[in-house]
Amino acid sequence: MSSDEEARAWLREHFLRTLTKFNGKDAVFTMHQNIMVTGQYECSSADLKYFHVSDLKTPLGNCKQSLLRSSDVISIDFKSQSNLFPEPILHGFAKDCVQQNQ
Predict the structure, then answer these.
(1) Are 37 and 47 in contact (CB under 8 A)?
(2) What is the torsional sign of CA 24, 30, 31, 37?
(3) Is 39:52 a contact under the CB 8 Å cutoff?
(4) What region does 79 belong to: left with phi over 0, alpha with psi -120 to 50, or beta?
(5) Cα(50)–Cα(15) distance, integer angstroms
(6) Under a CB-based contact definition with an 8 Å cutoff, are residues 69 and 49 in contact?
(7) Half-sphere exposure of residue 5, counting CA atoms within 13 Å on the CB side?
(8) Which parts of the chain are coiled coil (predicted)?
(9) Is-contact 22 78, C-beta < 8 A?
(10) What sign for the dihedral angle of Cα 79, 83, 88, 89?
(11) Which phi and psi (to 5°) does residue 89 adopt?
(12) Residue 92, H or E segment
């Protein structure tokens, strides 16, 4: 495996691990045309095409359980969680990359 492939694998793994830390957290989803919806982020599909959201509140009404297409979502803002990352995320070669840019 080349170093580029290793870097991509590391980034994907850590992105997915980070995403799972948000399971069950309140979130604000910005959709196309700046429509804001809120709900509790539960999980995403393995290919990241869908987000499962519970207690979704939209301008048109509320849904107990919903799937949002990731292609319709511009951004997701999670409420601040001070204990979300108890230990540093960056280590190994990613830490080296950050240090080189400083």
Answers:
(1) no
(2) positive
(3) no
(4) beta
(5) 16
(6) yes
(7) 2
(8) none
(9) yes
(10) negative
(11) -85, -40
(12) helix 92-101
The owner of tokens 């979130």 is 27
Q: Residue 54 has which token pair?
A: 């519970």
3-state secondary structure 1-29: CCHHHHHHHHHHHHHHHHHHCCCCEEEEE
Contact 39, 25 (CB under 8 A): no
Three state DSSP letters for 27-60: EEEEEHHHCEEEEEEEEECCCCCEEEEEEEEECC
Complete edge-to-edge strand list for the sheet that includes strand 50-58 = 61-69, 50-58, 36-44, 25-31, 73-78
Walk along the chain (102 residues) and give the pLDDT tens digit of each residue. 789 999 999 998 898 888 889 999 999 999 999 999 999 999 999 888 999 999 999 999 999 999 999 999 999 998 765 554 544 444 444 444 444 434
Structure tokens at 92: 């190994």
DSSP annotation of 79 reads: P
